[in-house]
Amino acid sequence: MSDAVRLSIEDGVATVTLNRPEAMNAWNGAMAAGLDAALRACDADDDVRAVVLTGAGRAFCAGADLGGGGDTFKPREGGAVAGTRAQAVMWPFMLHKPVVAAINGHAIGVGITLPLTCDIRFVAEDAKLQFAFVRRGVLPELASHTLLPRVIGFSRAADLLLTGRQLSGREAAELGLASRALPASEVLPVALAKAREFALAAPLAVAMSKRLLWEGIALDAPAMMAREGPPFAWLGAHPDTREGIAHFLEKRAPRWTGRPSKELPSD
Fold it and tell me: Of 24, 60, 204, 266, which is least packed with CB atoms within 10 Å of its CB?
């Protein structure tokens, strides 16, 4: 794992920290590789029930490292930009467990499209957020053209993506881009508290539900109903479903045995 990303795990919650505070966590190839390694490690560890993604220092991520000047976004060998190909990295939406973004400070460019691939977002109310791509002569990436309209609506997404204007964390919450805007010092604790809630749910059911949520971005209602049927039936025969009913009736804490890294059907 790269020094540009830190990983710590406590009580079933992993904290993944973008760790270039001297550069406001500007994105580069080392950070992409470190994030990929950290998320893959979290996904493979069934004791990790949820992940929190945040930034070290006063920024979440100030966007791409512009040290390359005018060639920053010029494709490298194999089509890579800034040291990586988007298709080669495990992004938060790919994990079989929830990922909560704790946007603790400024989030520009990839600094805001990255948390858009998380399941839930909390943001510092005074943070500066900006889909600045068109003001740098490039396009928003990481499926922003699909995800942002789904999250905040088409017209609001068009405003942010096509103007590249800046907004505050407070406005982001008002638009629905983040669940809540908070004082910067409260963002990570609130995100961690939310992450701990997932420990109460069955991990296999959460993994399948998350997969369907993200697949649903591209499916209509009838297609989703057809897609939900097989995993619903599969879970219905799993011991965790029996446990889910038993612990409720017996008024006790659940004892889940499902292991997403080993049992989750590939189809």
Answer: 266
